[in-house]
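Quick start: what a row looks like.
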Amino acid sequence: MSEYARIIGLVDVYEALTHPRPHRNKYPPYEAIKEILKNRDGFDIRFLKVLINEISVYPVGSWVELSSNEIGKVIKINKDFPLRPTVAIIFNVNGQNLDEPKSINLVKHPTLYVKKPVDESELKSKVSV
């Protein structure tokens, strides 16, 4: 199988997982990556690394909860550190909107980390959007 076919196959699987199908809901990006990694023997490891570095486990636009219990939206991925994006903190630890979002590059704040991804539908029940 050509390299191009293997790349397209991997991207097709990711796209299929992150979009709804008649028989299932869509996977959030982090879950799609986990599913692909469970079956990584079917994919070229070089292309898996590129997918994770380029799209990231937490793609731009993803909601995450930090170890500080603040909730924010990923505004930039750090290609060399896919688990440490730049996050715009939108909600404080009590779930209240901040007057102005504050931007935090997790690479520069080693004590902060993404505790868990937050699904947007779950977000509406947690905080006053």
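That is the whole record. The beta strands are 63-66, 71-76, 86-91, 97-105, 114-118. Helices lie at 3-17, 29-38, 45-55, 120-126.
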